[in-house]
Amino acid sequence: MVLALARLLALLPLSVLHRVGALCGGIVYLVSPRYRRYLSTNLRSAGFTEPALLRQAIAEAGKGLLELPAVWLRPLQTVAGRVVQVSGWDLVETALARRRGIIFIEPHLGCFEIAGQYYAYRAPAHAPLTALYRSPKKKALEPLMLAGRDRPNLRMASADLRGVRALLRALKRGEAIGILPDQAPGVGEGEWVEFFGRPAYTMTLAGRLATASGAQLILTFAERLPGGRGYHLRFEPMPAAPAGESPARMLNRALEGLIRRCPAQYLWGYNRYKVPAGAPPPT
């Protein structure tokens, strides 16, 4: 039933999906105290206190939800065509030529699903993208997610030891992988690092994979353009960590820099600061 509804939504123009999504975002914010608390608290604690920005973040979160059927269920060529501007693709081509692998670091910023789809469409067949995949809490959404990510040149790896091994094998073949870096990892898989001034349990996987493979880390995000005009997809090099700074700390600093450029489109409603079961509390 969820998949059937999504297929109907995917037929609508992106501009309509974004308008309806903005309305839905406002409704969810009003009816869900928990979501409202996370979104408003995370924004304020990060230093974004303007009422107008709060309203924009509410609307953008709704757009992000309603655009998913169009990104997941339309033909790959059509989806890639919604990317109307690309910055930094030469960085990707240079990394592919090195044949040491690419680690795309893509936070929950803008349309974070479309970058993998665009890469799958444009990259050569010998360098597919393997993305780390975590089953959603709402199992009814899983068939939709799997259908949307079943694309040529795009593979899934489960968020467990088997999946991590698959990522490393892909990198050693000179392929690309994709990681969402701002999800709270499991116990023993992260360290406590400040994120917008608050301790956040932050994954160390990206740094460990880069060290083990020699792959290049590339920051990626797709800015949602006004009026449903499409997306501006950006690829940027990960800054080098200063001496004595851990890769996880540098990761969070880099993510903060991206988010500050487009704060309304970050997924502030996610509980980024939770303590995973069994993890040591922040110090």
Account of the protein in words:
This protein has 283 residues and is α/β, with parallel strands linked by helices. It has helices at residues 2-9, 14-31, 33-45, 51-66, 68-73, 76-81, 89-98, 114-122, 142-149, 161-172, 205-213, 247-261; strands spanning 83-87, 102-105, 129-133, 154-158, 176-179, 190-195, 198-203, 216-224, 231-237. The longest helix has 18 residues, at 14-31. The radius of gyration is 18 Å and the shape is globular. The strands form 2 sheets. It has a 7-stranded mixed beta sheet with strand order 1-9-8-2-5-3-4, with helices on both faces. The chain has a two-stranded antiparallel ribbon with strand order 6-7. It has a domain at 78-263: Glycerol-3-phosphate (1)-acyltransferase (3-Layer(aba) Sandwich), CATH 3.40.1130. The N and C termini lie far apart (46 Å).
How are strands sequenced across the largest beta sheet?
A: 1-9-8-2-5-3-4
Summed up, the helix count is 12
Q: Can you write the helix and strand succession as a string?
A: HHHHHHEHEHEHEHEEEHEEH
State the helicity in percent bands: 40-55%
| CATH H-level superfamily title of one domain | Glycerol-3-phosphate (1)-acyltransferase
Terminal residue distance: 46 Å
Number of strands: 9
Shape, per Cα inertia axes: globular
> Briefly, what CATH class of one domain?
Alpha Beta
Overall pLDDT, averaged? 91
Low-confidence stretches: none
